[in-house]
């Protein structure tokens, strides 16, 4: 059976080790969007709250509502809220990032209709990633009218586009300069200024001088930090395994799988594993790009990845029915597997579908 084991003690190790990289007053925003990077939002969120995370953060409103429904009461930021479900966001007391003038207007209208004031919000500013965020002009307009909004401004933040790049990085320096200047502008406008934050996981490692009041950490909690030296301080928390459901031998010249994706170069032993692209193992891993580990030996995925299964070549491995196959673990990491297909651990982890059973240790 295919299962994703999650080691909450390793999560605690990562949390503590990341937290040690910040000062004792720095707030920790633990990012659990996309089902905690595919690893099970509820259990991971509960553990992070018990470890002392100051905020949880999700991408979308419905993800925050699911956490509330599971009984999680701590402050929850929503990075990318949308106007269609603002009332649901408010009813769940989630804290939105306000990222455009249009959203500020819609959000403030919804609060006024409910006669709510002092609602906790965050401002997301664009400093060069050019994805989402208030422009410098939007921010100036907001500050000029700030008394008219029913908001309690918790924090002002921006997001780096290349925080893992080697220093000095002129692009990041430009983003930082813009952030420092908007920070000064906001500080002037408030007698008690909000919190300021800029860095994600890679930035925690690469830019200790720019942690400001809080860090927003996602992938690091799950054991990766986008650079080998930084990865060493962390432990991948997930282990994905499956087991052989059928073994058969094929003669030289016979094909395996759809569209004859693999032709046996000699008489070969094939193992079938119940995990496929519907589980998050992309077709890009087919044709021997990816593989699994059986008794410590590498068994390449042969032919095309099917929806529910992959076939691996085990000709050189002495294995039997029901034998465990490791897709990734602390030793054979998600990062290494992702790299083989030209992608990143973020994508491989978040693609793991709900069909895979999550088991927390
Ligand atoms: C996802 C996200 C993060 C977390 O990034 P990691 O690289 O996983 O640490 C931080 N900030 C924002 C705005 C995000 O969307």
How would you describe this structure in keywords?
alpha/beta, single chain, Lyase, Ornithine Decarboxylase, Chain A, domain 1, 23% strand, 361 residues, binds pyridoxal-5'-phosphate, five-stranded antiparallel beta sheet, TIM Barrel
Task: Quickly describe the structure.
This protein is of the alpha/beta class.
Distance between the termini: 17 Å
The main sheet comes to: 8 strands, parallel
Query: What is the beta-strand fraction?
Result: 15-25%
So, the CATH homologous superfamily of the largest domain?
A: Alanine racemase
Based on the structure given, which CATH architecture of the largest domain is correct? Answer: Alpha-Beta Barrel
Number of helices: 13
Bound molecules: pyridoxal-5'-phosphate
What shape does the CA trace take? elongated
Task: Explain what you see.
There is one protein chain. The protein is an alpha/beta fold. It folds into two domains: 8-231, Alpha-Beta Barrel (TIM Barrel); 238-360, Lyase, Ornithine Decarboxylase, Chain A, domain 1 (Beta Barrel). The protein contains 13 helices and 19 strands. The strands form four sheets. It has an eight-stranded parallel β-sheet with strand order 8-7-6-5-4-3-2-9. Strands 11-14-17-16-15 form a five-stranded antiparallel β-sheet, with no helix packed on it. A four-stranded mixed β-sheet has the order 18-10-1-19, with no helix packed on it. Strand 15 (291-294) and strand 16 (297-302) form a beta hairpin. Residues 31, 33, 79, 159, 200-201, 216-220 line the site of pyridoxal-5'-phosphate. Pyridoxal-5'-phosphate binds next to strand 9 and helix 10.
């Amino acid at each position: 059976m295919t299962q994703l084991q999650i080691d909450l003690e390793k999560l605690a190790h990562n949390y503590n080790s990341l937290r040690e990289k910040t000062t004792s007053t720095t707030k920790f925003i633990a990012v659990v969007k996309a089902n905690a990077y595919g690893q099970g939002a509820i259990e991971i969120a509960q553990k992070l709250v018990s470890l002392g995370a100051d905020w949880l953060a999700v991408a979308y409103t419905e993800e925050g509502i699911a956490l509330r429904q599971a009984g999680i009461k701590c402050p929850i930021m929503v990075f990318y809220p949308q106007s269609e479900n603002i009332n649901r966001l408010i009813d769940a007391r989630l804290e939105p990032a306000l990222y455009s003038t249009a959203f500020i207007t819609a959000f403030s209208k919804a609060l006024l209709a409910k006669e709510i004031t002092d609602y906790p919000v965050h401002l997301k500013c664009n400093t060069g990633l050019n994805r989402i965020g208030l422009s410098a002009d939007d921010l100036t307009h907001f500050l000029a009218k700030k008394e008219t909004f029913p908001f309690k401004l918790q924090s002002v933040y921006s997001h780096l586009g290349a925080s893992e790049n080697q220093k000095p990085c002129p692009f990041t320096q430009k983003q930082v300069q813009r952030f420092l200047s908007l920070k000064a502008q906001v500080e002037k406008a408030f007698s008690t200024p909000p919190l300021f934050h800029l860095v994600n996981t890679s930035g925690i490692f690469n830019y200790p001088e720019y942690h400001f009041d809080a860090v927003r950490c996602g992938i690091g909690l799950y054991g990766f930090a986008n650079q080998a030296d930084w990865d060493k301080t962390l432990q991948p928390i997930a282990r994905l395994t499956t087991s052989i459901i059928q073994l058969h031998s094929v003669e030289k010249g016979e094909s395996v799988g759809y569209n004859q994706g693999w032709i046996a170069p000699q008489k070969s032993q094939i193992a079938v594993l119940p995990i496929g692209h519907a589980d998050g193992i992309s077709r890009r891993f087919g044709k021997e790009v990816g593989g699994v580990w059986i008794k410590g030996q590498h068994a390449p995925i042969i032919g095309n990845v099917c929806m529910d299964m992959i076939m691996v070549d085990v000709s050189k491995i002495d294995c039997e029915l029901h034998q465990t196959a490791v897709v990734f673990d602390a030793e054979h990491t998600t990062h290494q597997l992702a790299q083989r297909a030209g992608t990143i651990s973020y994508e491989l982890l978040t693609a793991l579908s709900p069909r895979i059973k999550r088991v927390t240790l």
